[in-house]
Amino acid sequence: MTHAKFTAQIRKAGLLATAIAALMASPALAKVTVLGWPGGPEETALRAAADAYNAKADVAEDDKVELLFFNRDGFWDKLQADLAAGSNAFDVNLLATYSIGRYAPFMEPVELSGEAAGVYGDAVLKTMQFEGKQFGVPTDLSLHFMYYRKDLIDALLNDDAAKARYGEISERLLGKKLEPKDPDAWDWDDYAATALYFTQSVNPESPTRYGTVLQIKNLLFNVMVWQSLPRAYGGDWMDADGKVTVNSDAYRKGLETYKLLYDNGATPRDSLSYEFPEANAAYASGQVVAMLQWNAAASDLTSTEKSPTVAEVTETVAPPTGPEGRFTHIHGLGFGLNKNAANKEGGVKFLQWLSSKEAALTYARNNGAPALTPEVVREVAQERPDLVKLGEFAGKYGYVMSGGTSAGALSVYELQAKEFTGYWSGQQSLDEALANTEKGMAELLK
Amino acid sequence: MTTTSPSARTPEFRLLATPLVLFLLVFLGFPAIVNLVYSVSHVSFETLRSPQLSGFSNFAAVWNDTAFWRSVWFSLRFGALTALLECGLGLFLAIFLSPLIVKRSWLLAILMLPLMVAPALVGLMYRLVLHEFVGPVPHYLWIWFGTGVSFLGPGSAFWTLVAVETLQWTPFALLLFYMAYQAIPADIGEAAAIDGAGPLRRLWRIELPLMAPTIVAALLIRFIDGFRVFDNVYVLTGSGPGGATASLSIYIYEAFFKQRAIGKAVAASVLLFAASFAVLYGLNALATRRKGAAA
């Protein structure tokens, strides 16, 4: 082949490649692309909501919704990288209470429909606010229930010998003689005493191997489960002046209670590697009496097919109380507007509809978990009785730590998970764990 | 007929080399330069396109971070131990099972199966296998000994992770060693046997020296793989209680995404790159010198 011929062929190939690239780069149809949370009830609910929206006569063809899903693994990291890179691959994206501050610089505040306050209530709308601005529609709420074995607790309450033994154990290990109570009236000492009483290594007559199961893997979500304990003793991340306040008696009480339970074998020995599924498996085995767990576990733990050993004897109440009240951590998943959205106008229209009563009820009827006000939840109470408790607990006991929606919130949870598990596993003292946490948080929240 | 190799100066050669050069510049050169800039900058996700130079403060932060040195120590221990165990076991199995595999080659395919599983999936699998209420191992331990065993607790997690890694990657070493063992000419062994050398003496004096280059290569590959471990450890224990099972890869990942300390994470990766380069350069120089001495 001559040099000239070779060069001509290369030119032709170059032209062809350019033409193909140009075709592939042609602008996409002007739809509203929504990035959702894949693979769970949230996906089912979002699909139903999108179908309902697209079926509406007044939605223009260019504003129809198309759904996009990443994998759950590393979802937030990938979303952060995409948003920071200025991606316009999606117009509306998922966001969570604990990460709003992180994504806010790449998103735009939204004005919700006039019905939103009456549908969700102020406490729930706040889970999607950052610096006083509404960044999203709170479609799914997560909080904690205390799951317990009603049969075993009832047996304890009706047995005088067992009550005496309970008193002895609580006096020996907690330093005060307690009497068994109905779980809805427990404070955190009652929770600890019951967990110890039902632990075979503490009480060989216990019908279960462990009194509780703590999920204390070095994972940010596990801190969320734990922190309602210090909150009940007045714990908070910061005071009104922005000073970090975790080096407090409330945090000491919370950390020491878990340490006491772990050291006395009231929770499985591998609890330091447990998260949501491991804790559920332990409880469902029938070898655990009570545990704090996300509301998302309710359907599995009360299903006779999925948890035959415990389903019919499991009850749920709000987490135990403390001197400062009864609390459950809440955070929401929701949808907000990408600053670089290709179809911003269409995205706003969809978000406004999503915050309406019609959308909330569609979402609720299709496996979603919106926290609705009592007036609205009444309409789906028969189909979704679990949402009644969700809305009630969120309204009565829900809280977000001061700074819990800031840009550094996720990193704060990560830091706490690392330092607190270091204490629970005996690698550092309580003083060291709290001092390190306070120092790290001061950096992250400044 | 004579053939001529294309000169590097001809336009055709340059044209053909251009895609490769461009690929290297775009996908290796550009990120490397960006990383170097980030490592000496104050940068966040909001300022990725406008980092501010901050001298060597990121390197100082990494250098003074006890978590960094802890992760380096974890990775070194993990890499060295798993490499030794995998190669030791692989060598033993390659020689011990060799007569059997020669006759039934499908056995080799079965032994290779663990390599077909993604490391993250192996992590997930062992989360189930070792769970006290789901896994078969704790279940039988409870039945036989009446007590639960903490496989992933603070005192045992490291050894469990080493065992999981070893179980998955020993077949890789076995494969390399089996091939090397089979490549030894049979007449050498026969001659040694005629001279009165027993099996152990033949192994020690003839077979192992002939397999030495493969053994060194396998040790190096497995050490590098163990040193940079991420997926199965992250799935099984995360970074462990108090960061006890954070490898260097996990340290960098968490600094970047979880702590959002991009400069610090990149500085740590630059240090890792420099250390790896120094070690590999040293090993290469050593090998070249030995080769020269042998010639």
Question: Features of this protein?
Answer:
heterodimer; A: 446 residues; alpha/beta; D-Maltodextrin-Binding Protein, domain 2; 2 domains; six-stranded mixed sheet; four-stranded mixed sheet; 20 helices; 45% helix; B: 295 residues; mainly alpha; MetI-like fold; two-stranded antiparallel ribbon; 12 helices; 2 strands; 73% helix; 1% strand
Summary, kept brief:
The complex is a heterodimer of chains A (446) and B (295). With 446 residues, chain A is of the alpha/beta class.
Please give the alpha-carbon distance between the first and last residues of chain B: 34 Å
Sheet having the most strands of chain B: 2 strands, antiparallel
Helical segment count of chain A: 20
Shape of chain B: globular
Written overview of the protein:
The complex is a heterodimer of chains A (446) and B (295). With 446 residues, chain A is an alpha/beta fold. Chain A has helices at 3-24, 41-54, 75-84, 100-103, 116-120, 122-125, 150-157, 160-174, 188-197, 220-226, 228-232, 249-263, 276-284, 298-301, 344-354, 357-365, 374-377, 385-397, 409-424, 430-444, and strands at residues 32-36, 65-69, 92-96, 107-108, 129-130, 133-134, 137-142, 144-149, 210-212, 288-294, 314-317, 321-322, 325-326, 328-329, 331-338, 398-399. In chain A, strands 1, 2, 3, 4, 7 and 15 form a six-stranded mixed beta sheet that branches. In chain A, α2 packs across α16 (357-365) and α8 (160-174) crosses α9 (188-197). The termini of chain A are far apart. Residues 18-29 of chain A have low confidence and may be disordered. Chain B is an all-alpha fold and 295 residues long. Chain B has a domain at 75-242: MetI-like fold. Helix content of chain B is 73%, strand content 1%. A two-stranded antiparallel ribbon of chain B has the order 1-2. Chain B is globular and about 75 Å long. Chains A and B meet through α1, α3, α13 and α19 of A and α1 and α11 of B.
